[in-house]
Amino acid sequence: MTICGRRLLIAEDEPILRITMAEALEKEGWVVDVAEDGVKAVRLFEQHLHDVVLTDLLMPRMDGMEVLRRVKALQPETTVVIITAHGTVESAVEAMRQGAADFIAKPFSIVQLLLRLSNVCSFKMLREQNIRLQEQLEERFAFGKILGKSKKMQEVFELIRVVADSDASVLVQGESGTGKELVASAIHFNSPRRTKPYVKVSCASLPESLIESELFGYEKGAFTGATERRIGRFEAASGGTLFLDEIGELPASFQVKLLRVLQERQIERLGSNRSIPVDVRIVSASLRPLEEDIASGRFREDLYFRINTVTINLPPLRERREDIPLLAQRFLEEFSRERGKEVVGFTDTAMEAFDAYPWPGNVRELRNAVERAVLFCRSSHVGVEDLPAALQGQQAAAKPPAARPVRTLREAVEQAEIEAMQAALAATNGRRSEAAELLGVSRKTLWEKLKLYGLG
Fold it and tell me: Considering the domain boundaries, does residue 347 fall inside one?
């Protein structure tokens, strides 16, 4: 069985049941204390502060409800399971309202008891794990984790401070790799909704045929292959924040459905006509100004106003070059620590290459470049020879032409794919559906390639 702690207390006035449970639980690894009434149980608990308490409801001198109240007052995190007879099930349910984790009705077998305790402990461990994960997420996405000393980034920070405490819909706009997802995360984890779900949806990666079922969910039998009910992202995010990344990629046919949901704050699963209330804060992101898509008829103006109470525009890295040394050093420390290498800085020529490069992939490209540099670096400082070929070219441009370095076929193919994708995105002003069409690939394939090369 799953054990959540070390010490367990049994409060039960029936001697045979009390001894039988104690022996079985000791075999499972628990240190067990026993009490024949509530008064003794509370006294033992005050001495040992048990991890789990099993208490009967009806006992001499003090009943199980009072034991529950005393235990929870002394140590709220202790798990309490109520033992009840069939005639007192209603009282056991009331005990759960007051903080008991579960109840088990007499008569029961030891196997049933062990299974019930195992389930309770599994749930407790999962809850504790979720709390730890929540703390880690809050630390990771704390406001101070977004780096930038430039004036433009300081303005972004101020906007995040203002909107985080509200429930306003936020639209984050910026080129690929500028940190839109990080800003969305910072807004959520610094908001009153920080302890509730944070659900991310990449609108560009969802096939058009699956968008509605992914966001709204579906009932069993709603379509071929729907073998069970599944909740959508809106329901999963209820109470928290839903991040709609690349919202400009949503097909026009779905935009009107999304608008209705945002207006009515209700969804209907596919295959159902029952409305389900949802309480979500919407944070959206787009890699190009949505006003352009409105003008061309690709995006609904009424939906734009619904998602755009506040706009945060992220500057490209080339417009805040004073942040490059700060970001590069942070990434260097991160990857040096991960790989166990003692790389402490950059040579002057490497920093000159950083400064001269246009950074079309923005902060994400810088991060990938530093990760590669740490991997290849054989000294205490990253040199220009450790940088990707594109950055080495910034230095080579100032020197007399030299023989072209030999690259592997794989490197040549990768560079050609990167250049082709960048050209297609530039030609379509960042519209990925059209760029994919130009390149002769599906939108999903283009999205995957951009992610692979750190350009997505």
Answer: yes
Supply the Cα-derived Rg of the chain in whole angstroms. 29
In DSSP notation, 265-331 reads: TEE--BT----EE---EEEEEESS-HHHHHHTTSS-HHHHHHH-SEEEEPPPGGG-GGGHHHHHHHH
Query: Which stretches of 91-202 are assigned E, i.e. beta strand?
Result: 102-105, 170-173, 198-202
What residue type is 340 in one-letter code?
G
Give the single-character DSSP code of 295: H
338 and 445 within one domain: yes
Instruction: List the structure tokens of 186.
Output: 């910072």
Give the separation between CA 243 and CA 261, rounded to whole angstroms: 15
User: Three-state DSSP class for 53?
Assistant: strand
Residue-range definition of the domain harbouring residue 378: 318-452
345/196 same-domain check: no
CB 246 within 8 A of CB 283: no
**293, 248 in Cβ contact below 8 A?**
yes
Report whether 341 contacts 372 (CB < 8 A).
Answer: no
For residues 421 and 428, what is the distance between their CA atoms, to the nearest angstrom?
A: 11
* Joined tokens for residue 97: 């309202």
Q: What is the DSSP letter of 241?
A: E
Do 255 and 113 sit in the same domain of this protein? no
Instruction: Please report, for the domain that includes residue 229, its CATH number.
Output: 3.40.50.300
Q: What is the CATH number of the domain that holds 361?
A: 1.10.8.60
Please list the pLDDT of the chain residue by residue as tens digits (456 residues). 666 678 999 999 999 999 999 999 999 889 999 999 999 999 999 999 999 999 999 898 999 999 999 999 999 889 999 998 866 677 878 888 888 999 998 889 999 999 989 888 888 888 777 767 766 655 554 455 678 889 999 899 999 999 999 999 999 999 999 999 999 999 999 999 998 999 999 998 888 888 999 999 999 888 888 888 889 999 999 999 999 999 999 999 999 999 999 999 999 999 998 999 999 999 999 998 999 999 999 999 999 999 999 999 999 999 999 999 999 999 999 999 998 888 999 999 999 999 999 999 999 999 999 999 999 999 999 999 999 988 886 554 444 444 455 567 777 778 888 888 888 887 777 778 778 877 888 777 888 888 787 776
Residue 280 lies in a domain: yes
Residue 221 belongs to a domain: yes
Domain closes at, from 90, 110, 135: 135
